[in-house]
Amino acid sequence: MTLSADSDPRLGPVDRAAAERTEEDLLARLEDAPDTRVLVVRGDQVPLVDGGLMAVVPAAVPTGGVRAFLGRRPDGGALLLAAFAADHPDPLLAPDGWAGLRAVGTLLPAADTAAVVTAVALGRWLVDAPFCPACGTRTIEQQSGWARHCPHCGREHFPRTDPAVIVAVTREDDPDALLLGSNALWGANRYSCFAGFAEAGESLEDAVVREVREEAGVDVSDLRYVASQGWPYPRSLMLGFTAVARAADTARADGDEIADVRWFTRAEILDGLAGRSDLQLPGPVSIASRLIRAWAEGA
Prior knowledge:
The chain is of the alpha+beta class. It has helices at about 25-30, 100-105, 110-130, 205-215, 265-275, 285-295, and strands at about 35-40, 45-50, 50-55, 55, 65-70, 80-85, 100, 140, 145-150, 155, 160-170, 175-185, 195, 220-230, 235-245, 260-265. The strands form four sheets. Strands 11, 12, 13, 14, 15 and 16 form a six-stranded mixed beta sheet that branches. Strands 4-1-6-5 form a four-stranded mixed beta sheet. The longest helix has 19 residues, at about 110-130.
């Protein structure tokens, strides 16, 4: 992975350096700094080179994108964002092409994947929400891309993050079984955990119970929080849980969003994860994969 001829081959953990965002003319000053690099995002895609992420010097980025300050790399140099719409022609010539987060996240070091998640989430907000939702006036970017100000009604707007739950469901009477669902929009043999957004006024625990009941027809208890993951589809914070089905034989697909539900054995899940069967499971970059793999491996 190449950033430039004289840079470290990885971004490394990026410090968001939020205190710098309010500095006057920060973006303009950083674009003139020799150690600044820019992560270009088109929709949810990033450019690749040498099998890894491609970040470039500011002069290599064409005009037309929306800029933001992502933070500081371990060497102290700034990392900026240049966000373009998903239908924009390739902003850069990427030697290894462009790839979306779901694909590239499995190839990159964890710190680089985290930087891409932030860049995609922030970039899509900057590109897709330029107008004030209250009065329709075009807003002015502030805080180095992390806020918008409406010059007409005075409202301040910030990148939106919606909480969503995702849950791996087991059963009381058989510790060797995991309930997964197949979305109606997916192809055959593709299964994942049940997930959905928390509704207004709803706790995360209530959202887990409701979503599993709606999508899979089972009531769950013994909810346990596992971990969270930022997920920019569209701008979500996925909160992972495990839960236990009270009555396994009530499982059924809702017939709308979920086309099929099925209890899988541990052996079937392990075969799917290892590619020894036609069962398609979530890619390693997602928290769904982490929940499934942790259950399958007894972690």
